[in-house]
Structure formats: C-alpha cells, structure tokens
Write a structure and sequence with these properties.
Shape: elongated
Helix content: 40-55%
Number of domains: 2
Number of strands: 5
Number of helices: 5
Structural class: alpha+beta
Strand content: 15-25%
Distance between the termini: 14 Å
Strand order of the largest sheet: 2-3-4-1-5
C-alpha cells in the first residue's frame, strides 16, 4: 500500500458526527473497487491524486482516518492534510517532493522500462547498450565490448530493471 493511501475506518461512536464524506467532491473517480477488505478508490483532481481505502464502506457510516505510525508517517500526514484541504474545497498545492520521483529518477525509470522492453523484444545486451545507453558512442569490436565498462554498466542496468520489475517498485511507493 502506498504511504499516500488514506485509510478510512468507521469512527468510534463517541466521535462520530452524522453525515458522510463526499469523496466525489474531491475530483473524478478513476478507479473504484470493492474487495473483501473494503472499498479502494483513486480520485484525480487538479491538485493531484487521492488514493482512498474505505475499510467500512457502508452508506451512512461516519468515518475516521487511521494513520499507521511507521517510517513514512510524515508522508501519511501530508497526504491526509491534502485530503482534508480537498474536502473543504481549499487549494492543496502541489504534493510534497517525496510523493513523486525527481526528474532524474523519472528519466532513469523510463530507461529501465525501455531496457526491459528491448530485452523482451529479443535485443542483445550489446544492441540495448548502443540503442539506449550509448547512442553517441563509437562502435566497438567484440573483444573490446567484452572487457568494456559500458558492457558492465549495461548488465548492471538490466539487473536493476529486472529487480524493479520483480518487486523493487515497492521501494518507490515507500518513498525510497
């Protein structure tokens, strides 16, 4: 689960005020899924994206936010603050920097995806290096390629891409 997911539970009886949260007022609901553990929604708005997990999706239930106290607690608080501002119709501003990858990280992730696509299409590692990593580099002979730092970097990048594909992407969701 992303640290930006807002977890909504039934409010304790002593704290519950009558009324419901109008999540549709936040923006456009682009994903809405009922599961055994509740209702999961993604809402887009001009201020960004809201991810909601309604653990008790019954109509008429007053809701409270549940905040896990973990190493991404600050990100969770920031997401909840943006959610609260959105509910009140206030400008939320841009999401905190930790929400999104930097321009450099986006470029690297794009490159990793391209490497995975090229490998699945049957390209050799040498072809991937010349097409994606070293476009302006001079052509190398077989022996030169075999001992080159470009070959080692290409292998490292492909290994990183495979790691991201098989579970490393979760680190992105946790702001690592």
């Amino acid at each position: 689960m992303s640290p930006t997911t807002i977890i909504l539970d039934a409010a304790p009886p002593d704290f519950a005020e009558p009324g419901e949260i109008d999540v549709g007022a936040l923006g456009t609901i682009v994903a809405d899924h009922e599961a055994a553990d509740g209702r999961h929604m993604v809402i887009t708005a001009a201020a960004g994206t809201y991810r909601l997990w309604l653990r008790d999706p019954r109509p008429g239930v007053s809701l409270a936010v549940t905040i896990p106290v973990d190493r991404v607690f600050g990100l969770r608080i920031a997401a909840i603050t943006r959610f609260e501002q959105g509910l009140r119709g206030l400008a939320c501003g841009r999401p905190p920097r930790d929400y999104l990858p930097t321009a450099f990280q986006r470029g690297r992730l794009f490159l990793l995806l391209n490497l995975l696509d090229a490998e699945r299409a049957g390209a050799s590692r040498r072809e991937m290096a010349s097409a994606l990593l070293y476009r302006n580099g001079a052509s190398m002979g077989r022996a030169e390629w075999k001992g080159s730092s470009q070959r080692r970097r290409t292998h490292r990048m492909i290994d990183e891409a495979k790691h991201m594909m098989t579970g490393g992407y979760r680190d992105l969701l946790l702001g690592r």
